[in-house]
């Protein structure tokens, strides 16, 4: 799994940070999403998918595999 975010799309609702605080945080100043780990461990994949589904603006992008350079 490879995660990316679109901070410009984020409206700071905080759904992701509430759902998976190990992976998502919010900026202290404007509340936009901060990605803590682009490659979440296996045991968080399901929760990350759920968080992506909760995001009201689809600012969380989940790719099944990381085929970019590490
Ligand atoms: S759920 Fe979406 S809009 Fe809300 S803070 Fe997370 S990325 Fe931003």
TrEMBL record:
Domain 4Fe-4S ferredoxin-type: 1-29
Cofactor(s) the record lists: [3Fe-4S] cluster
Annotated keywords: 3Fe-4S, Electron transport, Iron, Iron-sulfur, Metal-binding, Transport
Keyword presence, Metal-binding: yes
InterPro entries to which the protein is assigned, alphabetical: 3Fe4S_ferredoxin, 4Fe4S_Fe-S-bd, Fe-S_cluster_ET
Function of the molecule: Ferredoxins are iron-sulfur proteins that transfer electrons in a wide variety of metabolic reactions.
Protein name: Ferredoxin
Organism name: Streptomyces antimicrobicus
């Amino acid at each position: 799994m490879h995660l990316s975010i679109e901070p410009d799309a984020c409206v700071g609702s905080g759904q992701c940070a509430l759902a998976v605080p190990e992976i998502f945080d919010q900026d202290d100043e404007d509340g936009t999403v901060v990605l803590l780990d682009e490659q979440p461990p296996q045991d968080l994949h399901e929760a990350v998918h759920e968080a992506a589904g909760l995001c009201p603006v689809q600012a969380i992008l989940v790719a099944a595999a990381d085929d970019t350079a590490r």
